[in-house]
Design brief:
Layout (H helix, E strand, L loop, with lengths): L1 E6 L29 E5 L5 E4 L5 H7 L7 E3 L5 H4 L6 H4 L6 E5 L1 H10 L1 H5 L8 E5 L5 E2 L2 E10 L2 E10 L2 E6 L7 H7 L4 E5 L12 H11 L4 E4 L7 H7 L4 E3 L5 E3 L1
Parallel strand pairs: 3-4, 4-5, 5-6, 10-11, 11-12, 12-13
Antiparallel strand pairs: 1-2, 1-14, 2-3, 7-8, 8-9, 9-10
């Protein structure tokens, strides 16, 4: 099983427009961050995409991704879904639409905002066949489990994917650790966790909360993501405990 970190930046990326690097060293390539998406791949080569970030085309090209077996959405915030049109080239040559899954409210919002993706228009094929998460337990050979997380006044979905006797958990955009999250991620082989900045934030996990989630779940290894311009790669790497990695665009973790 393998994790490919397509993007690990916050909603504005790093640097922000205006060439604002904040505390991040512009000479460190791992500080250049696109918006968050990941790809999970099994030993059989099956691929699940989580979120269609605003930078999805760039991420597909950088990582030589031209095929996926399904797509999952954590929620409908712009940085997590507005790259949805970049799925179109992955639809070419398929016998049918790409399977897609999200929570009920996210499904409703995505259908409202991107109706052509899910219904087809003017002779164009449907790109994604969208369904709710309560209708799936297995996908492309992966076992899929999930729970809802608080994301300030909104909600986000946490995922646990299992294949080949291994597991990857994904928890981006959460502002509180719930018992359901701890249960979902307990004993996971790799946990990818939200970690916006060092100081507390009303809608995202900060460094202390991210490390607490890793500790409470007993995750064997963890990767920090959704990092803002205050989180310099080298400085943060020297700060985190053993077994916790600072994510970067293009990072691959094989289990």
């Amino acid at each position: 099983m393998k994790l490919i970190m397509l993007g690990c930046g916050t909603s504005t990326g790093v640097p922000r427009v205006g060439n604002d690097w904040g505390d991040c060293d512009p000479n460190e390539p791992k500080n250049r961050r696109t918006r968050v998406s990941i790809l999970v791949e099994s030993n059989e080569g099956k691929r699940l995409l989580v979120d269609t970030s605003t930078d999805l085309r760039q991420q597909f090209l950088a990582n030589d991704i031209d095929r996926i077996d399904a797509v999952f959405w954590t929620h409908d915030h712009a940085d997590h879904c507005h790259g949805i049109d970049d799925l179109r080239p992955l639809r070419y040559g398929r016998n049918g639409a790409i399977p897609g899954y999200a929570g009920q409210e996210t499904v409703r919002r995505l259908r409202q905002r991107f109706d052509y993706v899910f219904a087809g228009q003017f002779g164009y094929h449907t790109i994604v066949n969208l369904d709710t998460l309560d209708r799936i337990r297995l996908c492309a050979g992966f076992s899929v489990r999930w729970c809802i997380m608080p994301h300030g006044p909104a909600k986000s979905t946490a995922f646990r994917f299992e294949a080949d006797g291994l597991s990857i958990g994904y928890a981006t955009d959460f502002s509180e650790i719930t018992n359901e999250m701890v249960t979902l991620f307990t004993g996971v082989d790799l946990l990818v966790t939200d970690c916006l900045r060092r100081e507390p934030h009303p809608t995202h996990a900060h460094l202390g909360m991210a490390l607490e989630l890793v500790k409470r779940t007993g995750a064997k290894q963890a990767v920090l993501t959704h990092l803002d311009k205050s989180m310099d790669y080298v400085a943060l790497s020297e700060e985190v405990p053993s077994g916790v990695l600072v994510g970067y665009d293009g990072m691959q973790v094989a289990l």
